[in-house]
């Protein structure tokens, strides 16, 4: 019996070795690492989720096919919360029960609702391009990461772009058209600070959810206020509605700048590319398919005998999904390399804070996240719709860092 067991053990070892030689992507480790992914595929901002979330899955699929993270497979659990806070909280609790060591959050209202739970449970959550901007201060919010560009950074960047292209015009008037919920209201204090500092006239126009009726606001902007520029902070179906309405009243589209969740192919397609021509949009990740990581994902599908998924054609949101997944896997990689197994939320939090010089092969500018700075720089790039596609108008830049630091100090003093 012992001889048979010995022979069997040798045979198994040889078989594993042969499989490894034939397929070097074999994962040796048995420990599976769980990441929670919130998504909206059926709610009011499904125009984002149906592209972003597939990008997240595809990047993780590629990582797993290449052997996982330090030999460990990543398992993504996605839950569609329909952009509803109660469902978002329920989704988080399910992630926690399944042993998730990090969570990709979705929706600013959910970030606010889950911040205390993330901190108590020591599970890091990411909110790239959305969420609470004061979470940039990692000393106050150790488990929330508004990586890339918060709404505060988007506000400062939009004003800088306008002032740079207004040639010192006196009496400048800027309208801010926003979705009236916590996300839409998030940048208001920054705009007010900048208006006072730079001397432009600011007027705000709120659009009630679900944001598909704003003709009264647009008329008020175009016929009464008559601004030089319009900054929009809309998402879901509302960006395309704003494009149509602004075009209808004759407002010049090349003087309209949309925040990051109103600046995608889906928005222009819903409005009509000709209608959206000239519209400007802020981005925190590269747009288009000419990036090595995207070519690698497309090749992965072709190697399986499949066409790349159609979601890849909506590059703005798909690329962001890839980026977010890459940030989570990089944080897990750093956690394993620096702090060893088992992987925990606390270690992954430190892993996020160890990310430095991260570009994902040129998809983003170099990101550096520290225990103090959970945003990673606030870098953005302005694109414009030209000839039926998004074209870059600027290099990566950031603006008014002192204004943001002042706002962070004020938020800390208030304890908000």
Going across the major beta sheet, what is the strand order? Answer: 7-6-8-9-10-11-12
CATH H-level name of the largest domain... which superfamily? Answer: Response regulator
Question: What is the H/E order?
Answer: HEHEHEHEEHEHHEHEHEHHEHHHEEH
- By secondary-structure content and strand pairing, the structural class works out as alpha/beta
Q: Name the CATH class of the largest domain.
A: Alpha Beta
Total strand segments: 12
Alpha-carbon distance between the two ends = 69 Å
Number of domains: 2
Helix proportion of residues, in percent? 40-55%
Rg of Cα set? 23 Å
Uncertain segments are 1-28
Number of helices: 15
Strand content: 5-15%
Largest sheet: 7 strands, mixed
CATH topology of the largest domain: Rossmann fold
Known CATH architecture of the largest domain: 3-Layer(aba) Sandwich
Overall pLDDT, averaged?
93
Shape: globular
Give the tags.
single chain; 416 residues; 2 domains; alpha/beta; 12 strands; Rossmann fold; seven-stranded mixed sheet; five-stranded parallel sheet
Please give the structural blueprint.
Blueprint: H1 2-22, E1 33-39, H2 46-65, E2 74-80, H3 85-97, E3 102-104, H4 108-121, E4 125-126, E5 144-145, H5 151-164, E6 173-179, H6 182-185, H7 188-198, E7 201-207, H8 215-225, E8 229-233, H9 238-248, E9 256-258, H10 265-271, H11 273-276, E10 280-283, H12 292-303, H13 315-339, H14 345-352, E11 381-386, E12 389-392, H15 401-414
Parallel strand pairs: 1-2, 1-3, 3-4, 4-5, 6-7, 6-8, 8-9, 9-10
Antiparallel strand pairs: 10-11, 11-12
Helix pairs in contact: 2-13, 3-4, 5-7, 9-10, 13-14
